Amino acid sequence: MGWFDSLKKERHQEVETLSQSVEEIAEESNEEAYEDLEEVENAAVVEREVQPKSARDYSEVVSTPIKSYKDKKPVQHVIGQTKIVAIINQKGGVGKSTTAINLSAALGEMGKQVLLVDLDPQGNSSSGLGIDKSAIQNCVYDVLLNDVPIQDVIIPDVCEGLDLVPATINLAGAEVELVAEMARENRLKDAVGSLRGKYDYIMIDCPPSLGLLTVNALVAADKLLIPIQCEFYALEGVTKLLDSMKRVKNRLNPTLDIYGVLLTMYDGRTVLARQVVDEVRNYFGKTVFNTLIPRTVKLSEAPSFGQPITQYDPSGKGAQSYIDLAKEVISRG
Ligand SMILES: Nc1ncnc2c1ncn2[C@@H]1O[C@H](COP(=O)(O)OP(=O)(O)OP(=O)(O)O)[C@@H](O)[C@H]1O
Ligand SMILES: [Mg+2]
Questions:
Q1: Residue 93 CB–ligand 1 contact under 6 Å
Q2: pTM of the predicted structure, to 2 decimals
């Protein structure tokens, strides 16, 4: 037998031993599986009482239909001059919705009458306030494109002093559909304008883009609140936003102005965050709110419980920061 034949024989034997052991392993695990099965079959059957879902549980689920504006309780105080504020930054994830929810709720708790308009197809302000979007019949889309009166869409008293115009995914089509409409930039202005005198503040949570929805917000608003995240590219895109603001101011809304710039997700432990604060304060000067919104886990958890931070974690620093911001907003008139 030559060296090649003996090598072949050796390999053949190796392969045979290997397949034998694979078979053995398979057999063993089968045996184990059968043993497990027998154990399960022989186990004493423990009877457990299944608790039927009580009628009360069920009624709680079905008995909370979304209220309408007609059910709204009368407001207890004189409403000041309505201020329409767009919370705006085309950059995504900078804290627009978090600010829209928590600032609006804080103002409501301080006795102001507030309406929050969710103008983002993501509907984060709606779900963050505990609204089940699948249960909504009409949303802000229908106000903009189907001539549904805004009063018919308002969900009253989602929190103390706070009403909501919700958004659903239908709104995603609005950017495209508005293009073909007459007076397409004025749709929101006409709708929220009809509510002047009924609220102290109307807040608009804008989507992260400079499309027609955002232009509608720029035309409808008296003031802009610009959240800026304390991170490396903080000011990226801000010039573009200010550019859009100037164009709308020149042609469609001459009294439009900046209400304030808000620094969000501030982590005082990092040098970077402190540098960003200095940079933004140098750029915008006094328009920057003194209040810094800290980065806290509680603020990111609250929306999944459908609650503003003042309810979810009332004694935490997140709640305190939005209460401080609300005080600053009131003091700015
Ligand atoms: N101060 C904060 N501390 C910790 N997490 C925060 C804070 N503010 C916002 N977040 C979280 O950061 C994410 C983005 O925030 P948010 O949704 O408010 O931003 P946005 O500007 O509305 O985003 P988009 O542009 O997508 O609408 C969310 O997961 C939110 O929970
Ligand atoms: Mg948002």
A1: yes
A2: 0.82
> With b meaning 16 or more CB within 10 Å and e meaning fewer, what string describes 215-246?
bbbbbbbbbbbbbbbbbeebeebbeebeebbe
Paired residues of 115 in beta bridges: 163, 202
Distances (CA, A) of 209 to 113, 119, 205, 267: 28, 11, 12, 26
Kindly give the number of the ligand 1 atom that is closest to the alpha carbon of 302.
31
Strands (E), 160-273: 162-165, 201-205, 223-229, 257-266
Above pLDDT 70, what percent of the chain?
80
Inter-residue contact 164 to 155 (CB < 8 Å)? yes
> Strand runs (DSSP E) across 73-231, as ranges?
83-87, 114-118, 155-159, 162-165, 201-205, 223-229
> If you count them, how many residues does the chain have?
333
Place of tokens 């609006």: 104
Residue 30 CA from chain centroid, whole number: 51
Q: Is the CB of 293 under 6 A from ligand 1?
A: yes
Residue bearing the bigger pLDDT, 95 or 79: 95
Atom of ligand 1 nearest to the CA of 297: 4
The response to whether residue 305 sits with its C-beta less than 6 Å from ligand 1 reads: no
Pocket flag, ligand 1, residue 103 (CB < 6 Å): no
